[in-house]
Design goal:
The chain has helices at 2-7, 10-23, 27-51, 58-65, 68-100, 106-121, 125-154, 178-193, 198-203, 209-238, 253-260, 266-298, 317-323, 325-335, 340-347, 352-373, 387-406, 410-433, 437-443, 450-455. By secondary structure, it is mainly α. It is globular. It comes from Bordetella genomosp. 2.
Length: 458
């Protein structure tokens, strides 16, 4: 449920409308392609995580398989993504709550949400998991209900509204804007899928990490693909792709679909689900960012104070506080009407998902050969190794090249690459200066699980 919660956010309920308007009904192919890539990447990550469970997940594996600079770079880049995303989620939550109850400014609600979820992450991971379970359950329940109602409408069994059947799927052509638009939509879709890998971070704190990783990866992947691909299929069957309100951030795909289905108060319903979603994503983001800081600290790639955990809870509360810095910065920008500056920072997160997936694939390739050479028997394996791994690497590199050449996401690739380059330089300098060398040598040889995390309490 935590992994589902991290992936399903406003990008599905609102942001997907932009991709539908761009590619038309053929956007289904973009979501299916993105889902297939996630399945393959999660399988590779699962292979490494079962063999060596660790709270640092792919950052630790990159460190061991590629080199310290790789683990340092992808760890900090991933931390930056989730830390920055929290500020945006707080902003959206503040806007929704202010629309409902305008007697408090939007930044006041954003601050309240931020403080509340920081407090949740100070708790024991079991309590955090309970909060996240209920957040995720609301989102999953809303999507399942939408799938049921939409399916009834497609089969002409829904008595209200004006949408029926699958006529809109081909009414103006399945691919009205050409194949190029589908490729561009696929690149935009990848941003929505990032978060599935949280499962390997969370499972490392469970009683039986290897068993939990296998079970959750097998189930979570197909559920995510069903929720995304299934939802988008229903929308493009019932709603014209050139409906003007689809691409508007104040409406989105779910809102438009509920309106044509004759559901009263569609905007209020969607806003409630989106509010739950952004709070859930904030919660998952803070959990993931704080654990990544903890792992980086253990390897000597962050200050050792990030390893400090609560005596009773075992939660890395220093990492929680540091990871929430961008959320508090967003609150301040909202209060001073300078939130547009935050958009510039968000540009540097546009292709982090592809960078993360590329590192996972390269790490799995090298680690698999190394484990085989050592005679280690793997209980959970990547399919058709190494050919599918090579195929994923080639596809990701091709996607990044396409983004640069095509131009729609050129800024995102440029900003993210510049940020990654700066972090690589920092990692190489730290390695040359021997910063954290002892901690790195001591903590990259053995997996770090939840039990070990509890033993490092302050």
């Amino acid at each position: 449920m935590m992994s589902i919660a991290g992936v399903i956010g406003a990008a599905l309920f609102v942001g997907s409308g932009k991709q539908i308007a761009l590619a038309g009904p053929a956007v289904i192919l973009a979501y299916a392609g993105g889902g297939l890539l996630v399945i393959l990447v999660m399988r590779m990550l699962g292979e490494m995580a079962v063999a060596q469970p660790d709270t640092g997940s792919f950052s630790t594996y990159a460190d061991r398989a590629i080199g310290r600079w790789a683990g340092f770079t992808i760890g900090w880049l991933y931390w930056y993504f989730w830390a920055l995303l929290m500020g945006w989620e707080a902003y959206v939550a503040g806007q929704i709550l202010h629309d409902w109850f305008p007697f408090i400014p939007d930044w006041g609600y954003a601050l309240l949400v931020t403080l509340s979820l920081v407090a949740v992450n100070f708790m024991n991971v079991r309590n955090y998991g309970e909060f996240e379970f209920w957040f995720a359950l609301i989102k999953v329940g809303a999507i399942v209900l939408f799938l049921v109602i939409g399916s009834l409408a497609i089969m002409h069994l829904w008595p209200w509204g004006e949408a029926r059947g699958v006529s809109q799927l081909t009414a103006q052509g399945f691919m009205p804007n050409g194949a190029k638009s589908v490729v561009v939509a696929l690149l935009g879709v990848m941003f929505a899928f990032i978060g599935a890998e949280i499962v390997t971070v969370a499972a490392a704190e469970s009683a039986n990490p290897s068993q939990e990783i296998v079970r959750t990866i097998k189930s979570v992947v197909w559920r995510i693909c069903l929720f995304y691909v299934g939802s988008i299929f229903i929308v493009v069957c019932l709603v014209p792709y050139n409906e003007p309100t689809l691409a508007q951030p104040t409406h989105g795909s779910y809102n438009v679909a509920l309106n044509v289905l004759g559901i009263p108060h569609a905007q209020a319903i969607v806003n409630f689900v989106v509010l739950t979603s952004v709070c859930s994503c904030f919660n998952s983001a803070l959990y993931t960012a704080s654990r990544m800081l903890y792992s980086l600290s253990r390897r000597g790639d962050a200050h050792r104070i990030m390893q400090t955990t609560g005596r009773r809870t075992g939660a890395p509360y220093v990492g929680v506080l540091v990871s929430s810095v961008f959320a508090f910065a967003a609150v301040w920008l909202m209060a001073t009407s300078q939130m547009d500056l935050y958009d510039v920072l968000m540009q540097a997160t546009g292709t982090i998902a592809l960078f993360v997936y590329l590192v996972i694939a390269c790490s799995q390739l090298r680690m698999r050969y190394r484990l085989q050479a050592d005679g280690v028997e793997l209980r959970f394996k990547m399919w058709l190794f190494p050919w599918l791994t090579y195929a994923v690497i080639v596809c990701i590199i091709a996607a990044l090249a396409t983004m640069i050449v095509e131009g729609t996401y050129r800024t995102e690739v440029t900003y993210t690459s510049a940020l990654a380059g700066a972090i690589v330089i920092m990692g190489i300098v730290a390695q040359r200066l021997g910063i954290g060398k002892r901690a790195h040598q001591e903590n990259t040889t053995a997996p770090q699980t939840g039990a070990a995390m509890g033993q490092s309490r302050a």
